[in-house]
Every structure is written in structure tokens, then in C-alpha cells.
Amino acid sequence: MNIKVVLEYDGSDFAGWQQQAKGRTVEAELKRALRETTGQEITVYGAGRTDAGAHAEGQVANFRTDGRIAPHRLVAALNARLPDDVAVLSAEEAPEDFHARYSARWRRYRYRFLDRPARPALERNRCWHVRGHLDVEAMSRAARALVGKHDWTSFCSASEPPAARVREMRSATIRRHGEFVELELVAEGFLRGLARGIAGALAEVGLGRRPPEWVGKVLRARDRRQAARTAPAGGLTLMEVIY
Question: Which of 10, 69, 71, 72 is the most exposed place for a label (fewest CB within 10 A)?
């Protein structure tokens, strides 16, 4: 059986989704829980690699099992073995050719800013506390330049292969929700550091340090040195993977 699962996790104490030689990862925790549940070593495919410290409300993964445990029973079985900062929300049998990463059409990320004077306590690991009021209208004007198919060299990690840096951004919206300002990005794929690089640039505009048209100029320059600082990972959450 090809099983599709949806997970949420608090990434504060993780070195990211992808298993690596050092550091605690979400993928490794899921594989351990699967091994304890099924008695088998199972390969897991995730929809995307979230950064160290970033979170997820709708991460998707798939894996194959021998079918001895029904999908609806896997949710409780895995959650009993996963740590408190990871939870499986649903599990279902997927078509044979379904792949969490390669079958995905769009991914939706949210970045949260907090611009009140007082630092956060309850949300300290789920937002970026910026010093100064954010101009949401200016940030919205700047974000319009991001929509479309672009080379994202100016905003992504230099470790990304140059030939793979062109991706389509379906939408980029900014809204205020009470004390929080939320950036929502929907794209066919996110390069390493891309969402946080964009968030850092929009913060410069929102704080009045740069004009809205500056973001488009940086994007067209294809030069990471011209961009702003990368926003902290704690404000970033993978909200949904769309198939």
C-alpha cells in the first residue's frame, strides 16, 4: 500500500525536515515511529524540506507498507510513538503513482511578523518580532512584483543549483490580523531560504527603509548580495501542499 500522511510539527527543536548526519529531524522521528509500529525499515518521501526552526501545519509524506495495519489505525499508532512536537493528522491509501513531492502542484507557506512594542512570550517561536510599525500597504505593493515565473537567485540560498532557480509564484499576499502581519506565498516549489529571503526584503519595505519598487529591482538583479537579511525561521510555517 502507498500511504499518504499529513503532519503538523513545531520545528523549534528540529534541524529541519530532512534526515541528516547530525541534528534531530522530523523525517527521522517519523521513520523511527514507523519502524516501531511496523517492524520494518520504511523509506519516507516528504513534500518539501522545511528549514531548521520552521514549522508545518500541512506537511505531506508518503511511504509504502505491506498493508497489515489499516491507514485509519496508523494515525493513533504513529502518534503514540511520535514526540509531542510532531503529530500525524491523517493517513489514507494513495494511488500507486502518488509521490508527496513530485505529485504536488503548489505549496502554501505563511510568514508571521509581530510589530507590537512588547516582545512575544506565547508566540516567541512562531513569529518574527520586528522593532517598528509595519506598513502593510507598502508591503503589499512590493509583493506584487513577486507573482509570476522568476529566477529567484536574489532571495534563495547560494547552495541551490543555478539551473533550478526558476519557479512560478502563484500569489503573494500581505494581511494584518490583529497584532500580526501575515505574508502568504503560494508557489510551485520553494528553494532553500526563498520564503525567508522574501520575508526579510518585505520587512525592509514595511519598516520604511526601502521603497516598494526596491523588491522588484532586487529580484531582477539576480544577486543575493543586494537583498536584505534572511528572516528568522521561527516565523515560517508550511500551511498546505496542493495536489
Answer: 72
Of the residues 10, 13, 51, 135, only one is catalytic, namely 51
Give bridge partners of residue 2 from the DSSP assignment: 64
Nearest to 74 by CA among 42, 107, 108: 42
> What pLDDT digit, counting tens, does each position of 12-35 carry?
999 999 999 889 999 999 999 999
DSSP assignment of 126-151: SSEE-SS---HHHHHHHHGGGSEEEE
C-alpha to C-alpha distance for 44 and 32, rounded to whole angstroms = 11
Assign 44 to helix, strand or coil: coil
Single out the residue of 147, 236, 242 nearest to residue 200, CA to CA: 236
115 labelled catalytic? no
Q: Is 144 left (phi over 0), alpha (psi -120 to 50) or beta?
A: alpha
Type of residue found at 25:
T
68: pLDDT strictly greater than 90: no
What SS3 state is found at 225?
Answer: helix
